[in-house]
Design goal:
Distance between the termini of chain A: 44 Å
Strand order of the largest sheet of chain B: 1-3-2
CATH topology of chain A: Alpha-Beta Plaits
Largest interface: A-B, 40 and 43 residues
Number of domains of chain B: 1
Shape of chain B: globular
Order of helices and strands of chain A: EHHEEHEEHEEHHEHEE
Strand content of chain B: under 5%
Oligomer: heterodimer
CATH superfamily of chain B: Formate dehydrogenase/DMSO reductase domain
Largest sheet of chain A: 4 strands, mixed
Shape of chain A: globular
Strand order of the largest sheet of chain A: 8-1-10-9
Number of helices of chain B: 17
CATH architecture of chain A: 2-Layer Sandwich
CATH topology of chain B: Formate dehydrogenase/DMSO reductase fold
Radius of gyration of chain A: 18 Å
Number of strands of chain A: 10
CATH class of chain A: Alpha Beta
Strand content of chain A: 15-25%
């Protein structure tokens, strides 16, 4: 197997479902950071909500003893991503530097094949040209391109922040420290459920968390090798 | 042409002169029949053309133009059903395009004599169905205006297309098939174009003079033409198999439950031939009525094509059953959910309709010669088969996408008016192209019929007239 990552970092995300309160702060932060358009009520009802990150509510137990559990879902940043080989124009591809599953918006011609082959249905499509009504247009992030109609997009692990973190560290002539890079969702999570970091750094928080016996990866049996690890089941004994 | 061997076919109970090849007419008369059919246009013809033009304008220019300007959102596709009617239509028209190659090339390779009068009509369907099928990958693209990024050419982006993608294989296969089948249509057309040239004046004369490439009918020309046709007939068959196999691989190569299946390649090929041959029969019946081609298209031809459809109905049923049983017996949760969706869900009426049209009706009726040779019966059966095959593709494309491994990601799909208008527009494009071509190109390969009639003779043996066939070299 050839070496894909030239970067010494291996970015992963650990999400503690036992901590997640379903407050949706991460969803809002993701929209703001990545210029994800707001499509409006009608299109949301039509099944066309554009969230790179959305929260699934899962009911556990039988009525009346039910309990809601929340699961933030986004692109799982597969190391063997099914979306990559099917794109005819290399719009979705494996980024050799950051070792993440990247999407080049301006290459995308909109075959939507990647979305069909994603077992997590993590991708969103620009069904129409995006609209950023006043005053949303004032807060567009200049680091992320705005996508026009007909283009596929998805969570990038806030690759612009990974790059900025590395550039800042290089400017200060030091190694990248744990916590230097925070995607918008992790930064905004009030419960501290979303952790992001470098698996290759043995000192990082995520390196410690991946050894948790509560860790699972979504649809791991498919062999896609997701980079998102969920921690769940801590309260199983309590019922 | 040298006579190699003579075999005597003992007469059946019916009069052998009911068969086209034992019922020769003078060359001039036969040529005129084809030329008259080509040059006669009634007011009904122009009315049909006018209606078709309107439908094409509405569907292709209007609805598709609107979709390009507004975005794919005007179609009904939505998460997680990212492919809908457009891909269904694509697979359907690729299937129709298999008619020509199968009916013409395979029957030619096997020297099936009954093919002679209708190879051209079938080959023409292949080319036009491919044109319509080829529109759909463009219609379905989010950014249609960037379609050429899939074409491998040196460009300023310094980027080749991704040859790992089945869509890229698809594009290459369709282009190969379109070029190959158009050449294969053109080669046997040359002697007929020359015949038309000799009888025509005016714009037709000029057109045929250019298209006939100076054909004079010398022995050497015939020799080259026959060699070329034989090469193309053999070469186009594997291309035909590859095209629909690759279309099936668009689905089979994915991880999607209900698509990821090794049987999809052959299953789609069989389905394509099934629907393609049925469409040939539908078109031949319409042509025979509209262009008064009763002399050329006879009961024996529909009888033979009916038998082919019967065999392919059985083959399709077998593949369908093999696919279904594997999914059902394996009992994987998502696969089972898909089967439940088909048997009891919202698509259930369509699913049962598909089984009726593709399995029940053909298998119960086509064994009967009276039905195979009846115009109305065959028209209804073959139209039904194409409705059934369309439903099959629709259920495969949209059904499998609506159910996936994570139940909170399930969804539904309903086509919108825009999608329906574009579908009607593309069907109209096909019929329009065919209707226009039917008045420009000789639809009956006269020279092939005449050649067949030369090799078929009624010989007097004792007191009996025995039909005999000499094998042409």
């Amino acid at each position: 197997m050839e070496q894909i990552g030239q970067d010494e970092h291996r970015w992963i995300m650990v999400i503690d479902l036992d901590r997640c309160t379903g407050c949706q702060a991460c969803v809002v932060a993701c929209h703001a950071e990545n210029n994800v358009p707001i499509v409006g009520d009608e299109e949301v009802r039509n099944g066309r909500a554009m969230h790179w990150l959305h929260i699934e509510r899962i009911w556990i137990g039988e009525y009346p003893n039910v309990r809601a559990k929340f699961m933030p879902l986004m692109c799982q940043q597969c190391q063997k991503a099914p979306c990559e080989p099917v794109c005819p124009v290399f719009a979705t591809y494996h980024n050799a530097v950051e070792n993440v599953n990247a999407q080049i918006y301006n290459r995308c011609i909109g075959t939507r094949y990647c979305a069909n082959n994603c077992p997590y249905i993590a991708r969103t499509f620009n069904w129409f040209d995006p609209e950023f009504p006043e005053p949303l247009n004032e807060q567009l992030n200049p680091d992320v391109s705005v996508r026009r109609r007909g283009i596929m997009e998805k969570c990038t692990f806030c690759i612009q922040r990974i790059r900025r973190g590395r550039e800042n560290a290089a400017a200060e002539d030091r190694e990248l420290r744990d916590g230097d890079v925070q995607p918008a969702c992790a930064q905004s999570c009030p419960a501290g459920a979303i952790k992001f970091g470098d698996l290759n750094n043995p000192e990082s928080e995520v390196s410690r968390l991946v050894h948790s016996p509560r860790g699972i990866r979504l649809l791991e049996e498919l062999g896609t090798e997701p980079s998102v690890i969920y921690l769940s089941g801590g309260e199983a004994h309590v019922g | 042409m040298s006579v190699k061997a003579i075999s005597v076919v003992w007469p059946e109970t019916e009069d052998p002169r009911e068969k086209l090849l034992f019922d020769p007419r003078p060359t001039r008369e036969m040529n005129n029949m084809v030329l008259d059919a080509m040059t006669t246009t009634s007011w009904r013809y122009w009315l049909v053309i006018a209606v078709l033009v309107v439908l094409v304008l509405i569907g292709i220019f209007g609805a598709w133009g609107y979709q390009i300007l507004q975005g794919m959102g005007v179609a009904g596709i939505r998460r997680p059903v990212y492919w809908g009617v457009y891909i269904t239509n694509f697979v359907f028209w690729i299937g129709i395009s298999h008619s020509g190659t199968f009916v013409s090339a395979i029957l030619r390779v096997f020297k099936a004599e009954f093919r002679r009068p209708f190879t051209r009509a079938a080959e023409l369907m292949t080319s036009f169905a491919l044109v319509v099928a080829g529109m759909y990958p463009l219609i379905h693209l989010g950014r249609t205006w960037r379609f050429y990024w899939m074409v491998p050419y040196p460009n300023q982006r310094q980027l080749w297309p991704n040859f790992h993608s089945p869509l890229e294989w698809d594009m290459l296969a369709i282009f190969t098939y379109l070029i190959g089948s158009t050449l294969y249509l053109y080669l046997p057309l040359i002697p007929d174009l020359a015949m038309a040239r000799d009888y025509s004046t005016g714009w037709r004369g000029n057109l045929y003079r250019i298209m006939a490439l100076g054909w004079r009918g010398t022995e050497a020309e015939w020799h080259h033409l026959k060699t070329a046709i034989t090469i193309f007939a053999f070469a186009i068959i594997p291309v035909m198999f590859s095209v629909h196999t690759i279309v099936a691989w668009d689905f089979g190569m994915t991880m999607t439950v209900g698509w990821h299946s090794s049987i999809f390649g052959p299953y789609f090929v069989v389905g394509a031939i099934f629907s393609g041959v049925s469409a040939v029969v539908t078109v031949l019946l319409i042509l025979r009525k509209a262009m008064r081609l009763d002399y050329f298209l006879r009961a024996e031809h529909f009888d033979a094509l009916g038998k082919i459809i019967l065999v392919f109905s059985a083959a399709w049923t077998y593949f369908f059953f093999a696919d279904y049983l594997t999914e059902w017996y394996g009992g994987e949760a998502v696969g089972k959910e898909l089967l439940t969706l088909q048997a009891r869900g919202p698509v259930a009426p369509l699913w049962y309709l598909m089984l009726i049209f593709n399995v029940a009706i053909p298998l119960l009726t086509l064994w009967n010669k009276r039905i195979r040779t009846s115009v109305r019966g065959m028209l209804l059966i073959t139209l039904g088969i194409n409705v059934g095959m369309y439903i099959e593709r629709y259920i495969i494309v949209t059904g499998a996408l609506s159910r996936n491994r994570l139940p909170f990601n399930w969804g539904a799909y309903n086509p919108t008016l825009i999608e329906i208008l574009i579908s009607i527009g593309s069907l109209s494009t096909f019929v329009l192209l065919y209707a226009l071509a039917s008045r420009v190109l000789p639809l009956i390969p006269v020279w092939e019929v005449q050649e067949g009639q030369l090799s078929h003779r009624l010989r007097r043996i004792g007191r009996q007239l025995a039909p005999s066939v000499s094998e042409l070299d």
